[in-house]
Amino acid sequence: MQDFSVTITPRFYETDALGHINNASIAAWFEVSRIRFLEPLGQDGLAGARDWILASLQIDFVAETFYGTDVIASITGAKIGNSSLTVVCEMTQGDQLTARGKAVLVNMDRQTKKPARVPDSLREKLAAR
Amino acid sequence: MQDFSVTITPRFYETDALGHINNASIAAWFEVSRIRFLEPLGQDGLAGARDWILASLQIDFVAETFYGTDVIASITGAKIGNSSLTVVCEMTQGDQLTARGKAVLVNMDRQTKKPARVPDSLREKLAAR
Amino acid sequence: MQDFSVTITPRFYETDALGHINNASIAAWFEVSRIRFLEPLGQDGLAGARDWILASLQIDFVAETFYGTDVIASITGAKIGNSSLTVVCEMTQGDQLTARGKAVLVNMDRQTKKPARVPDSLREKLAAR
Amino acid sequence: MQDFSVTITPRFYETDALGHINNASIAAWFEVSRIRFLEPLGQDGLAGARDWILASLQIDFVAETFYGTDVIASITGAKIGNSSLTVVCEMTQGDQLTARGKAVLVNMDRQTKKPARVPDSLREKLAAR
To answer: If you measure CA to CA, which chain B residue comes closest to C68?
Structure first.
């Protein structure tokens, strides 16, 4: 799998009164990296997002994240199940690993709105990465 | 006009590194009070929100807002124009006025998606307040 | 353990273009319920929040959450380790369980800024609940 | 004055159920552009932000902003008063002007926490732009 990463410049309003980036903003950044990772797979923007629901999210907050330095959010793994896609993401700020997370997405059929097998076209695109 | 107010309990993630509530959260609270004010006028929830677009927003940040004490967001004025509705809101925390704002909303026709005269039914409901 | 729950009224800006509450807002609500749960334990507001860091967060999104109906966020478990506190939270909207999550917090010594044994005073307060 | 602009890639969670970017996110983006504009003036990050408080904010929402296309937030004017700084910002998405805003900031003395004359060093830096 090739590297895929998104650069996130922390925003001042994402800090909290503890002087660091609030964990809720970091959870939100996971969505940013996850969705941008899925977009080039042909799951374009809003339309693509409609095909997936987030079933679960797990984040380890390894170190504090601060305002003033870019964060690199890298997708370090993507594993396809039958109807699911597990995406692993790591965030670093400078040399410091700050957060590590895993999201399990479920592929939804647009018509039936029920979980559906991940289409072969997407499997091939992911395998080619 | 009768009193209409919404109690907002500041959330920790709404603070920023300056130790107070960030202005972007306060702008967001204006939306909360504005939408709840419009809902009982028959503009129910999401459906009602679709009928209005926000044309402009003006906020004076009179004093800092802090975590730990409820904020009362009161609608202190609502003036109907032809297709517009101007809503005035004041926020207090304890005895302190913290913010004062004005939002101009434009009534949209659902079909044409163009500005449309505010319907008489809404004018009557507002006048009766 | 007695019931502890926080009522969260979804805000319109917490919806996303899929027409439901965005998962990042739900992660943020977990913080709201967690912090309010800790506050009456003598961990008052901002001061108390400084004593804990969030080490990890895990959320299962069981069902969609929608605008227009209150969400009840209940703390259904709290387990103290040596320096950690694991808080379990469930969210329901109407009769529907919508999310279930677990946060692991680590108690920090204010001076050394290192993990420290959870003080007995807090252990007693938690046991009495 | 030279051009100063920040590119903002809309995030999916910044959309709302009306299918566009929520106005509260746009108010937040104004802060992003304003703070980045002030930083190179020697008002570095968090430290610099402490020197200014936001006194008022005015935004005209000229057209809807959508997910999927970058927004350019340009500072098109900055005018220094005695203790105040008025910053004008315009946002465009593609060829479309989407929002236009004005923020009035007040320079605060770090010690006294009262409004203070904008220092000459900052006046010179702004004049040189």
So the answer is: B45
Please give the torsion angle defined by the CA atoms of residues B14, B18, B19 and B21, in that order, rounded to the nearest 10 degrees.
Answer: -30
Residues 2-41 of B with CB under 8 A from C: 11-13, 15, 19, 28, 31-32, 35
Count of residues making up chain D: 129
Contact (CB<8Å) B16/A20: no
pTM of the model: 0.93
Chain segment A36-91, per-residue pLDDT in tens:
988 877 655 455 666 888 999 999 999 999 999 999 999 999 999 999 999 999 99
Instruction: Give the pLDDT confidence score for residue B121 in this predicted structure.
Output: 82
Inter-chain touch A31–C23, beta carbons under 8 Å: yes
pLDDT tens across B4-59, in order?
A: 999 999 999 999 999 999 999 999 999 999 999 888 776 554 556 568 889 999 99
Q: Is D64 exposed, middle or buried (0-12, 13-18, 19+ CB in 10 A)?
A: middle
Mean model confidence pLDDT for chain C = 90
Asked if the Cβ–Cβ distance from D18 to B56 is below 8 Å, we say no
d(CA A114, CA A102): 22
What number of other Cβ atoms are within 10 A of residue D3's Cβ? 9
Which one of B13, B15, B19 has the shortest CB-CB distance to C28?
Answer: B13
Return the structure tokens found at A30: 């996971």
Burial A59-72 (b: 16+ CB within 10 A, else e): bbbbeebbbeeebb
- Token pair belonging to A42: 């042909």
Residue C91 CA to residue C101 CA, distance in Å, equals 9
Name the C residues in 69-128 with CB < 8 Å from any B CB.
none
pLDDT for residue D46 is more than 60 = no
Task: Using CB atoms, pick whichever of D16, D23, D24 lies closest to residue C16.
Answer: D16
- Residue B93 and residue B66 in contact, taking contact as beta carbons nearer than 8 Å: yes
Which chain C residues are closer than 8 Å to D22 by Cβ?
12-13
Q: What pLDDT, in 10s, does the model give residues D5-31?
A: 999 999 999 999 999 999 999 999 999
Output the pLDDT for position A96: 98
Chain B CB within 8 Å of residue D46 CB = yes
pLDDT of amino acid B43: 52
Residue B61 in contact with partner chain A when CB distance is under 8 A = no
pLDDT at D103: 97
Does A68 touch chain D if contact means CB atoms closer than 8 Å?
yes
Cross-strand partners of B79: B86
Contacts of A49 in chain D (CB under 8 A): 12
